[in-house]
Amino acid sequence: MSGPTKKVVDVAFKASRNIDWDGMAKLLVTEEARKEFATLRRAFNEVNTTLQTKFSQEPEPIDWEYYRKGIGSRLVDLYKESYDSIEIPKYVDTVTPLYKPKFDSLLVELKEAEEKSFKESERLEKEIVEVQELKKKISTMTANEYFEKHPELKKKFDDEIRNDYWGY
């Protein structure tokens, strides 16, 4: 194997070793996400297997002497000459330059979404702690204690009372 094909196979193999599939699977919440993730993992493994088997093997060299003994040298020499004259085209990657910028921009969006997700998770964790504290104290809490934590509700209720709006 030579050139770009070997490089692609090596990169794919290294990438497959670095992916923590089980760790990512633990982060999934919905059943639909788990199904999509399993499909992605299966597709990745199929492509990786194809790359490692189909493109990583060098073709066996032709034993021209073996054929000369059985067929005759004139015919074998004719085939060998034709075989040697075949020029195998080199692979020119025209796809990567088109999709590399798109992929890079998606990575940037992914990082931004990840940061937003972490911030939202922190906010939700704080809110969960507040709700749990409120749940513990709710049976003994007075309205004034509740309004101290939620002044916007006190303002809303005061406005409703002041404007004589009783909800009906």
Automatic annotation (TrEMBL):
It comes from Cannabis sativa. GO terms for molecular function: proton transmembrane transporter activity. Signal peptide: none annotated. GO terms for biological process: proton motive force-driven ATP synthesis. The lineage of its organism: Eukaryota, Viridiplantae, Streptophyta, Embryophyta, Tracheophyta. It is found in: Mitochondrion inner membrane. GO terms for cellular component: mitochondrial inner membrane; proton-transporting ATP synthase complex. It comes from the Eukaryota. This is ATP synthase subunit d, mitochondrial. Transmembrane segments: none annotated. Mitochondrial membrane ATP synthase (F(1)F(0) ATP synthase or Complex V) produces ATP from ADP in the presence of a proton gradient across the membrane which is generated by electron transport complexes of the respiratory chain. F-type ATPases consist of two structural domains, F(1) - containing the extramembraneous catalytic core, and F(0) - containing the membrane proton channel, linked together by a central stalk and a peripheral stalk. During catalysis, ATP synthesis in the catalytic domain of F(1) is coupled via a rotary mechanism of the central stalk subunits to proton translocation. SUPFAM superfamilies: ATP synthase D chain-like. Its main location: mitochondrion. The keyword Mitochondrion applies. PANTHER family: ATP SYNTHASE SUBUNIT D, MITOCHONDRIAL. Keywords: CF(0), Coiled coil, Hydrogen ion transport, Ion transport, Membrane, Mitochondrion, Mitochondrion inner membrane, Transport.
